[in-house]
Each structure stands twice: as structure tokens, then as C-alpha cells.
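Dear support,

Our group has been running a series of protein-ligand predictions, and this particular one with flavin-adenine dinucleotide is the one our PI (initials K.S.) wants archived with full inputs and outputs. We had some confusion internally about which version of the output was final, so please treat the block below as the authoritative record. The input we submitted was:
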Amino acid sequence: MVVAPRPAFERLDPTLIEALKMRVVGTLIQPGDEEYDRARQTHDPAVDRYPAVIVRAGDAADVIRAVTFAREQGLPLAVRSGGHSLAGHGSVDGGVVLDLSHMKAVSVDPVRQTAWVQAGATAGDVLTHTQPHGLALATGDTSSVGIGGLTLGGGMGWLVRKYGLTIDNLTAVEMVTADGRLIVASPNEHPDLFWAVRGGGGNFGVATAFEFRLAPVSTIVGGALILPPTPAVVRGYADYALTAPDELTTIAAVMPLPPHPAIPAEVHGMLTFTILICYVGDLEEGQRVLDPLRALATPLADLTGPMPYPALYQFTAQAAERHTASVRAGFLDELSDEVIGAILEHSQSRPAPMGMVQIRALGGAMARVPKDTTAFAHRDKSFLVAIINMGDGSEVATWTEALWQRLRPYTAGVAVNFVGDEGDERVREAYPTPTYERLAEVKRRYDPTNLFRLNQNIQPAG
Ligand SMILES: Cc1cc2nc3c(=O)[nH]c(=O)nc-3n(C[C@H](O)[C@H](O)[C@H](O)COP(=O)(O)OP(=O)(O)OC[C@H]3O[C@@H](n4cnc5c(N)ncnc54)[C@H](O)[C@@H]3O)c2cc1C
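Confirmed final output from the archive:
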């Protein structure tokens, strides 16, 4: 039997934990508690760590208490909202986990078209509250992802070409700093911090709530267009997706055909080029805008059409379930024939049943924001390519790594939300050098001792 490692827990004074427990409005969970094994889980079952204390915060004061406790006890601190960190940063052996997943209130002002959102809400939670007003926030492609981590890393999804990144719709953030202060960062208050948290990740404090601008989004032309995976189809997609109107955002993937009632069972698992579509605008015009994609080849299936915006998330429902995945990603200035060839060739031999190479066509509203407005500065990139291999085991990781080594020379930077546990060099790739240096300076001001280091870490300037 494997004995669970509990290093720092052994030397923690139980009376300190009891004192913290008495003050916490939310829940404090420790080894031995009935809830402990569930509470230490993240979205990735492979993240199997044994924290000394889990503080499931009930309010911002709990966040202050947990941050202060970790700092005073010299314990490592893992902060999580939706728990989807690709790097396994959502938990820590022997340290403090600050879990914001129960702080998930969402309040919508339909007149001003804004929302106040606690950090533990998921993209799906936000949608549930905004859709009755015909509004939406630009979030990612999967409903279960936490607004906390998604926003601090940028947030790129179905509306990116029309309404930009999640951070492009952020107007203020409430945060707890390393020294335990509750502050607001906005264009007028702590503007340096407001710049840094829009793409700089969890390096500068714990976000407790966000204020966002919403956009009018209700019925869209959306769904999946499933095409044969040929070089000409991928080339045609890449050329069109960038020049199409901003109303059209697409997330395409070389991937096996998933089980779907509208698709004959005998072709499930067949390799395809699947384009997930989100057109926000006039519905008839949207159908016309899709025609050039439909004309790329005879579709294996055409599941596109008018639908309520939330229905789009059904196409990524599998990713919303807990799973392990090996992921490698990078931005591309162009999708060259060499890159297309490598992706298609390598995809013939996927070991995992749900392995895919995702290609996101960018540009539009995201590219129009000047690059020094936020810490997310790779705004001029045309595509994000992400190898996403669901499943664990060395065969899956080896396949991912082998394709990544072929694609990497063609990439230029990466979105920090798509970086796994890949070391400092890859964190630096998420930022142009001047951006990283500016982030390091803000880090020095707000977290000089690097209390918030279980993240894609920015080293405080020396
Ligand atoms: C299935 C899946 C689909 C995804 N799709 C997209 C997508 O379409 N677009 C996209 O941009 N990204 C996407 N991502 C990446 C995702 O945005 C990041 O992994 C993000 O960090 C997850 O946020 P979270 O709150 O769920 O995760 P968490 O694990 O809770 O947080 C991740 C990290 O963010 C920091 N953090 C989280 N909350 C806070 C907080 N309140 N205050 C301070 N720091 C905090 C911490 O450093 C933490 O380690 C996807 C990831 C997965 C697993």
C-alpha cells in the first residue's frame, strides 16, 4: 500500500489550524476529514497531492486569512478557482490550498451590460446568469473552466474575433495582495497591477471578484462542420478563417469523429478535420459566411445551424469532465504547408482515443488592442496550435512530445493559459521580453517574496 506523503503537515501546530478553522466563514478541511479526498482533487485526476490544509473560502476575508496563514507559517500556497491548471498548480503536498470554487456569485446589470463575478464561478455559471438577458462574456471553449484562472491568463474562446479576450472585457478586479490587503485594480486604481493581472496569471495576488463588460449574444450560427482531413482542406480553412468577418470565430481540430447521435456509429473514431463554428450576427448572413468552409470538401457531417449560444458548449462537453491530458501549444504567424503536413501525418498514429491537434484562427478584436495595453502581448499572432491528448500514460505523452518537437520551430510564443509544467523558459515565451521585465517589476512591488509562486511564475525583479 502506498503511504500518502504529508511532509509539512507533520510539523504544523494543530492549535494554529484550529484557530484558523474557528475564524473561517467557509470551510477548512484537513487530512482525516471526510471531505478531504474529494476536496484535494482538481480537474486532472493525475494531480494527486496531499495538502496540509484546504481553505474553501466563503468570502474575501477568508482569502485574507488563508494568505496570511500561509505567509506566516512559511507554507507553500496553491490558489485555485476552477481547478483546470494544465500544470498541476491547483494542489500542493504539505501546503495550503486556497480553493475559491464556492465563491461563485454572479450579478448581472442588464442595463449597463456588465457583470460582477466572483472568481470561483465557471464560464458555464456566468453564461447561466447572462443568457436570460441575451448577454454573454467572452470566455473559453469549455464551460467548466474557472473564471479566476481563465481571466488572469487572458481567456480565449468562441467570441475572440468579435469581442476579444476575456481580459479585453475586464473593467476592474478585486484582489487580496501578498501582505493581506483587499484592494481594487482598475484603470484608475493600481493601474500597474491592472495591467499585469490581464495576462500575468496568479502572480500578483488572489483575485476574489471581477467586473466585466458583456456583449449581446443569444442565437448564433454555430455547431460543427466535419470535413475530411486533407492538406487542401486545412489550407483552405486557414486562409479563409483569418479573412472572414470578425463575427466568425472558429476552433478547428484534426481529431477522431466523436460519438454523436447525428453521425453513423460505424464512422465514430475516424480521423476528421472538424471546425467548430461560432458566428455572432445576422443569422442569414452567418449561413452565407459559412459557405466557403462548406465548399472546401463534401462534409462528412454538417451539424451547423442557428442555435442558442450555450448549445455550443455541448461540443466540448467531454473536455468539461475530469480528465488527464498532455498538452503542448504555441502561436503561429502562419499555418505553413510544413506545419499542416506534420499535423496530418502525425495524427494518423494517435495512441489516445481522444487525441487532437487544435488550430484556433485568431485576429479580429483581439488583434486590435494595442500590445502594451495588457500583459497578454502576443496579439498579432494568426493561429494558436494546441496538441491536446486526453489520457495518461507514457505513450500518450511521447506522442504529444514528438509532434511538439516537429511544430515547435515554427511557433512564436505561447498563450500562458495553455502552458503545462514546462519550466521557466516556456513561461518567458508567453511574454515578449519587455513585457516580462515590466511584469517582474510589478511582481517586485506586490509580491517581493514570491508568496504566489505555484503558477506560471514571474520572478520578482532583483
Ligand atoms: C478542458 C480545458 C479547456 C480549456 N479551454 C481554454 C480556452 O478555450 N481558452 C483559454 O484561454 N484557456 C483554456 N484552458 C486553459 C485554462 O484557461 C487555464 O488552465 C486556466 O488557468 C484555468 O483556470 P481555472 O480557474 O479553472 O484553474 P485553476 O487551476 O483554479 O487556476 C489555474 C491557475 O490560475 C491561478 N489562479 C486561479 N484562480 C486564481 C485567483 N482567483 N486568484 C489568483 N490566481 C488564481 C493560479 O495560479 C492557478 O494555479 C482550458 C483548460 C482546460 C483544462
